[in-house]
Amino acid sequence: xxxxxxxxxxxxxxxxxxxxxxxxxxxxxxxxxxxxxxxxxxxxxxxxxxxxxxxxxxxxxxxxxxxxxxxxxxxxxxxxxxxxxxxxxxxxxxxxxxxxxxxxxxxxxxxxxxxxxxxxxxxxxxxxxxxxxxxxxxxxxxxxxxxxxxxxxxxxxxxxxxxxxxxxxxxxxxxxxxxxxxxxxxxxxxxxxxxxxxxxxxxxxxxxxxxxxxxxxxxxxxxxxxxxxxxxxxxxxxxxxxxxxxxxxxxxxxx
Length: 255
What we know:
Layout: E1 28-39, E2 42-49, E3 62-68, E4 74-80, E5 90-96, H1 104-110, E6 116-123, E7 135-140, H2 144-156, E8 163-169, E9 185-189, H3 206-215, E10 220-225, H4 227-239, E11 247-251
Parallel strand pairs: 7-8, 7-10, 8-9, 10-11
Antiparallel strand pairs: 1-2, 1-6, 2-5, 3-4, 3-6
InterPro entries: Cbr1-like_FAD-bd_dom, FAD-bd_FR_type, FNR_nucleotide-bd, MRET, OxRdtase_FAD/NAD-bd, Riboflavin_synthase-like_b-brl
Domain FAD-binding FR-type: 25-129
Keywords: 2Fe-2S, Iron, Iron-sulfur, Metal-binding
């Protein structure tokens, strides 16, 4: 089920920070309509985008966000869309605060409901999922954001295909979107686990992933997080027999 999603761009692997070659996108004003705390260092901003014929996004795409200072200087960063596709006029972006970043500290400290930023997008043609094929999602920390767009879309469409989601976090309080997950989701803790958790703390292992792969035969895997997480997780997938061509990776950088 694709529910009228836009056509998939015919692109190979691209980095998250570079818009598709030849893409024509204008900067549009976007008003903040809601701000939610996800963790002590992450917030989700709901944006109402102003403009005609705003493109509906695909799960896994991202928007560029631009801030302009009084002296005219600008700074911009790319943030994954965490919300399921709607009519294109509203999206949610989850932003982790990076203390030495150019954009995220300002968003966290200065931007609230009613404020306006500029956005451009949506971008991304490789790390997208249309909701009609089995899928395994692996997210490290803030890397769960684009995967949550996929999981939310899957849920709104009636969960039509097999999906499993694994989220790796250091501590329980680092988990984004808590309270929203169902039995399709496995959460592992690498530094400190909650009381009663049956898994010893530590890095993601093949034993964590093997039953998830078995539950989604023929799946494409989407891996998102830091460079270290994505490299480790993707190598485990290939070791377990998933063809490398069926592993899609998105790495996060500072913001």
